[in-house]
Specification:
The structure holds two protein chains of two kinds.
Chain A: H1 3-32, H2 34-37, E1 41-42, E2 45-46, H3 47-77
Antiparallel strand pairs in A: 1-2
Chain B: H1 8-13, H2 15-38, H3 43-64, H4 70-75, H5 82-93, H6 96-109, H7 114-138, H8 143-151, H9 154-187, H10 191-206, H11 210-241, H12 246-267, H13 287-301, H14 305-308, H15 317-335, H16 338-352, H17 364-369, E1 374-376, E2 379-380, H18 384-393, E3 404-406, H19 411-418, H20 423-461, H21 467-491, H22 502-520, H23 526-547, H24 568-585, H25 591-601, E4 609-610, E5 613-614
Antiparallel strand pairs in B: 1-2, 1-3, 4-5
Helix pairs in contact in B: 2-3, 2-11, 2-20, 3-9, 3-10, 3-11, 3-20, 5-11, 5-15, 5-20, 6-16, 6-20, 7-13, 7-15, 8-9, 9-10, 9-20, 9-21, 9-22, 9-23, 10-20, 10-21, 11-12, 11-20, 12-16, 13-22, 16-19, 19-20, 20-21, 22-23, 22-24, 23-24
C-alpha cells in the first residue's frame, strides 16, 4: 500500500468511526436518558419522547448526507475519487 | 414514457420532467375522482378506479422498461441517479406494514413503539457508511455474488442464498397477502383470486425489465404512497389545530392525550392496569428489549439483500453514498409523520368515543366494525344494537377505555373516515397501501430470483450459458417464485405474518459479520466467514424456533427475557466472535485477495466484477 493510500484509508476509517459514534449517540445514548430528557417540554413535546419520535431520526438523515460529502472530499484530496 | 434501448439517455436526462408530469397527472386524477364523487358516483366504483388505474400505470412502466441486456436486468444498467434510487429504495423498503401498521403500532404501544422508528431509520447510517458503497464498487449482481467473490467458492455462495431466502420468502408472502387484501376490498373479487391479481401486478413490473423496470415502477409507487400517506393526516391536523403540518402540530395533541389519560383515571373510565400512557417509556417492554430490538432492526436493515441490491444500480460509488442519504430522507418523511397519525387518531378516539353513551358514537366505527377491525365490549362493532347488547351484558352504559379496541392496521386507512373526509381519500390511502406492498414485493421477489438465476443457475449449474439463456432462465425463475409465494399467501394461515419480523434478525446474524468484516478486515478468511455465518444464522434460527409461537416454534420461555423478535441479539455477537476466531486460526488471505479488497475500498477505477463475472487480474 502506498503512503498516500494508507493516509487515505486511515482518514476513511476515522470518518467511519465518527459517523458510528454519532449513530450510537442518537440511536442508543439519547433514548437511554428519555426520562431525564422528559423533564424538558417545548412546543407541547416532552423532549425525551420527541428525540425518539423525530429528533434522532433527523440526526440520522443529517449524518448520512454529511458522511457522503466528507468521504467524497477525502477521496478527492487523495486522488482516489471516481472521475466526475 | 419511452425507455427503449438507444433512447435511454433521453429518458435519464428527462427524469425530473417525466416524474413531475406523472405526479401532476396523479394529483389531477385524485381531483377528477373527487369531482366524480361529488356528482354522485358510487364509492365502490371510485375504489375500483383508484386501485385499477394505478395497477395499470405500474404495469405500463414495467413493460416500457423491458430489456434484453444482462446488466439492465440485474443492476438497471448502472444508470439510476442517487435521488431516484433513494425514492426507489424508500418504496422498496417501506412495506404494507410500514404504511398501514406503523402508526397503529405507535397508537397501541405508545413510546415503546418508537423502537421501530429508530431501528428502521438508524440502519441506513450503517448501510451508507459500512456496506453499500463497497458492494457498489465491487459491482455485484447479488449479495451472495459478493460473498462468493470475497470468500472464494460456491459453498459460501450457497450460505448467502440460504440467508437471503430465509430473510425474503415469508416477507414476500406477507406483501403478496397485502396486495390481495387490498385488491379484494377495492376490486371486489374473492381473496383467493385477488392474491393472483396482485401477483400479476407484481410480475408485470418486473419480469420483462428486471431491476430496470422495478426501479422505475418503485419511483412511481413512492410518489403515490407518500401522497396517500400525508394527505389524510395533513387535513386532520388542519382541522384539529388549524395548521396543516401534522409533524409539528401533534405536540398539542400529545398534551391533550396526557391530560385526558389523567381525567379518565380520575373518573374511572380507565384503570391503571389497562391504560398504556402514551408518552411513558417501558410500559409494554423493558429497556433491554427496547434497545435489543433497535439494534436488530438497524443491523438487519444493513443486511437485507433486497435493500442492499438497490445500491448496485447507481452510476458511481459517490452516488451510492448520496443515494443512501436520499433513501433515508424519503423514508424519514413517512416515519416522522407516523407518530402524528397515532396522536391525532388517539385524541379523536379519546374525545369522541371513550366516555360516550352508545347513541353518540361516530359512524365510522360501524364501517370498520363490520370487518371486526373495531370491537367494543369484546364484540365486533357492527351496529348500534350489537354494541348496546354487548356492553349491557358487560354491565356498562358508556364506552370505557378498556371496552374499546381498534386493529393496528386500520388506524391509517380509517383516518379519512375518522376525520370525516370524502371516500375519495379512503381510495387514495388504499392505492398508497397497494403501492407500498407492490414495491416491496417486487424488490423481494427480484432479490430471490436474481440469486437463484445468477448465483445458482449461471454460477453453479451452467457457467457457459449465453446471455439470452441467462435472461430466459431469470424470468422463468422469477415467475416460479412469484407463483409459489402467491400459493403460500393463499394456503398459509394468517398468523404466518408473525414470522415476517424474523427476517431482520436472520439477515443480521447471517450476513452482517461476513459483509462487514469482508470489507473492513482484510485478515478475514473464507473459513472464518463460513463458520461465522453458520454459527450466527444457526443460533438465531435456533432461538426463533425455541421461543417462537406455535406452530412455528416451541414457545419456550425467553432466555434473559429477550423477546423472540430480537433473536439476532444472540446470533450477532456469536457470528462476529466465530468469524474472528476462526479467521485468526486459519492462514491469512492471499496477496491477490488483499488486492481485490483494496480495489473494493477505493472508489476510483473499474468495478471488480463486470456483467456478473470477475474481471481477470491485471
Amino acid at each position: 500500500m502506498s503512503s498516500n493510500e494508507a493516509a487515505w484509508w486511515s482518514k476513511t476509517r476515522r470518518l467511519m468511526a465518527v459517523c458510528l459514534a454519532v449513530w450510537f449517540i442518537a440511536g442508543f445514548v439519547i433514548p437511554l436518558f428519555v426520562n431525564q430528557l422528559n423533564a424538558f417540554v417545548f412546543y407541547g413535546f416532552l423532549l425525551g419522547y420527541y428525540m425518539a419520535a423525530q429528533g434522532s431520526l433527523i440526526i440520522f438523515v443529517l449524518v448520512v448526507f454529511w458522511f457522503a460529502g466528507r468521504q467524497d472530499a477525502i477521496d478527492r484530496e487523495h486522488g482516489v475519487a471516481e472521475e466526475d | 414514457m419511452a425507455i427503449q434501448r438507444g433512447r435511454r439517455s433521453d429518458f435519464i436526462d428527462n427524469l425530473g420532467k417525466i416524474y413531475l408530469m406523472y405526479t401532476g397527472g396523479f394529483v389531477a386524477f385524485i381531483v377528477l375522482l373527487g369531482i366524480l364523487e361529488a356528482v354522485g358516483v358510487r364509492d365502490d366504483i371510485l375504489g375500483f378506479l383508484f386501485v385499477g388505474f394505478t395497477l395499470v400505470i405500474y404495469a405500463a412502466i414495467g413493460i416500457l422498461s423491458r430489456t434484453m441486456r444482462v446488466s439492465d436486468y440485474y443492476v438497471a444498467g448502472l444508470q439510476v441517479p442517487a435521488f431516484y434510487n433513494g425514492m426507489a429504495t424508500a418504496a422498496d423498503w417501506m412495506s404494507s406494514a410500514s404504511f398501514l401498521a406503523m402508526a397503529g403500532t405507535l397508537y397501541v404501544l405508545g413510546y415503546d413503539g418508537l423502537a421501530f422508528l429508530i431501528g428502521w431509520t438508524g440502519g441506513y447510517v450503517l448501510v451508507a457508511v459500512l456496506i453499500a458503497p463497497y458492494l457498489r464498487k465491487f459491482g455485484a449482481y447479488s449479495v451472495p455474488d459478493f460473498l462468493a467473490a470475497r470468500y472464494g467458492g460456491n459453498f459460501v455462495r450457497l450460505l448467502g442464498i440460504v440467508v437471503l431466502l430465509a430473510a425474503s420468502y415469508l416477507y414476500a408472502v406477507a406483501q403478496i397477502r397485502g396486495t390481495g387484501l387490498i385488491a379484494e376490498r377495492f376490486l371486489h373479487i374473492p381473496y383467493t383470486y385477488a392474491v393472483f391479481v396482485g401477483m400479476a401486478g407484481i410480475l408485470f413490473c418486473s419480469i420483462l425489465g428486471g431491476m430496470r423496470a422495478v426501479t422505475w415502477t418503485q419511483v412511481a409507487q413512492y410518489i403515490v404512497l407518500i401522497i396517500a400517506y400525508l394527505t389524510p393526516v395533513v387535513i386532520m391536523s388542519n382541522s384539529v389545530t388549524g395548521v396543516p403540518v401534522p409533524q409539528i402540530m401533534y405536540g398539542e395533541a400529545l398534551q391533550q392525550i396526557a391530560a385526558l389519560e389523567r381525567e379518565m383515571l380520575a373518573s374511572g373510565l380507565a384503570d391503571a392496569e389497562t391504560l398504556t400512557p402514551h408518552l411513558t417509556p417501558y410500559t409494554t417492554t423493558d429497556p433491554i428489549n427496547f434497545f435489543a430490538l433497535v439494534l436488530c432492526l438497524m443491523v438487519g436493515t444493513a443486511s437485507l439483500p433486497h435493500v442492499l441490491m438497490r445500491y448496485f444500480t447507481t452510476p458511481s460509488v459517490r452516488a451510492a453514498r448520496k443515494s443512501a442519504g436520499w433513501s433515508l430522507l424519503f423514508i424519514f418523511i413517512l416515519f416522522f409523520t407516523a407518530p402524528a397519525y397515532a396522536a391525532f387518531v388517539k385524541l379523536e378516539i379519546y374525545q369522541s368515543i371513550i366516555g360516550q353513551s352508545f347513541g353518540n358514537l361516530p359512524d365510522w366505527i360501524y364501517v370498520w366494525g363490520g370487518n371486526e377491525k373495531v370491537k367494543i365490549c369484546d364484540a365486533a362493532a357492527r351496529s348500534l344494537e350489537a354494541v348496546t347488547a354487548a356492553c349491557q351484558a358487560a354491565g356498562t352504559d358508556v364506552v370505557r377505555l378498556a371496552d374499546f379496541w381498534i386493529a393496528e392496521d386500520v388506524v391509517v386507512i380509517a383516518t379519512p373516515e375518522i376525520a370525516g373526509l370524502p371516500f375519495v381519500i379512503t381510495g387514495l390511502v388504499g392505492a398508497g397501501a397497494l403501492a407500498a406492498a407492490l414495491s416491496t414485493a417486487d424488490g423481494l421477489l427480484l432479490a430471490m430470483s436474481n440469486a437463484l438465476s445468477h448465483d445458482v443457475y449461471y454460477k453453479m449449474v451452467d457457467p457457459n450459458a449465453p446471455t439470452g439463456r441467462r435472461l430466459v432462465a431469470a424470468r422463468f425463475i422469477l415467475l416460479g417464485i412469484a407463483v409459489a409465494a402467491a400459493f403460500t399467501a393463499v394456503l398459509a394461515p394468517p398468523d404466518i405474518l408473525h414470522l415476517v419480523a424474523w427476517a431482520f434478525s436472520l439477515a443480521a446474524a447471517g450476513n452482517f459479520p461476513a459483509l462487514l468484516l469482508g470489507i473492513w478486515w482484510d485478515r478475514c478468511t473464507s473459513q472464518g466467514a463460513i463458520a461465522g455465518m453458520i454459527a450466527g444464522f444457526g443460533t438465531t434460527l435456533g432461538y426463533l424456533i425455541y421461543t417462537g409461537p406455535a406452530p412455528f416454534g416451541f414457545a419456550n420461555e425467553p432466555i434473559f427475557g429477550i423477546a423472540t423478535i430480537s433473536a439476532g441479539i444472540f446470533g450477532l455477537p456469536i457470528g462476529f466472535a466465530v468469524t474472528i476466531a476462526v479467521s485468526l486460526m486459519t492462514p491469512a488471505p492471499s496477496e491477490e485477495m488483499r488486492q481485490m479488497i483494496r480495489a473494493i475500498r477505493r472508489p476510483g477505477g473499474a468495478t471488480v466484477s463486470r456483467d456478473g463475472d470477475l474481471r481477470p487480474a491485471e
